[in-house]
Write a structure and sequence with these properties.
11 strands, single chain, 3% helix, 1 helix, mainly beta, 155 residues
């Protein structure tokens, strides 16, 4: 068996959810959480075991959102970090982080008060990832700033 070269990631990264057209979603790596969680709003259960929900892309720019329809993978009781237990919907989708793309299971939850729109748990991180808790955005390409030309006076 050939072992894959580890992919170094920081404690926070941008991830893509390509099936849904979501790019550069800010995610926090949390090895203390087994499952991953995604901040969504307006969850509506549809016929044929499907859900419609809005993925909120930005903490402050609340109008930046993508509407998604996805099959319900399961419903389960989850204990949150504050110790409370609640029933959540889970869906599956592709996640891309660095060169790794894989199917992940996400619980749908209100993370509106949290800085990161997504929490990456151990199950999504298993395998090729190696985490450096001193670094952030290791696999996330830097956004290029538009260069502005300086006007020169000729005369």
């Amino acid at each position: 068996m050939v072992r894959e070269e580890p992919v170094l990631i920081g404690w926070t990264e941008y991830v893509d959810l390509p099936d849904w057209g979501v790019r550069r979603l800010r995610a926090k790596v949390d090895t203390g959480a087994r499952t991953s969680a995604l901040h969504v709003e307006n969850i509506v259960e549809l016929p044929r075991k499907r859900l419609r929900f809005d993925v909120v892309l930005h903490r402050e720019k609340r109008d930046r959102r993508i509407r998604v329809v996805a099959p319900i993978h399961r419903r389960s009781r989850v204990r949150s970090s504050n110790g409370e237990t609640e029933t959540r919907y889970f869906v599956k989708t592709s996640m891309k982080l660095g060169r790794v793309e894989r199917k992940v299971e996400l619980s749908l939850v209100d993370r509106g008060r949290m800085i990161h729109r997504m929490l990456l748990g151990r199950t999504a991180l298993s395998g090729p990832f190696m985490i450096d808790p001193d670094r952030r955005m290791v696999q996330s390409p830097k956004k290029r700033k538009k260069k502005t030309r300086k006007k020169t006076s000729r005369g």
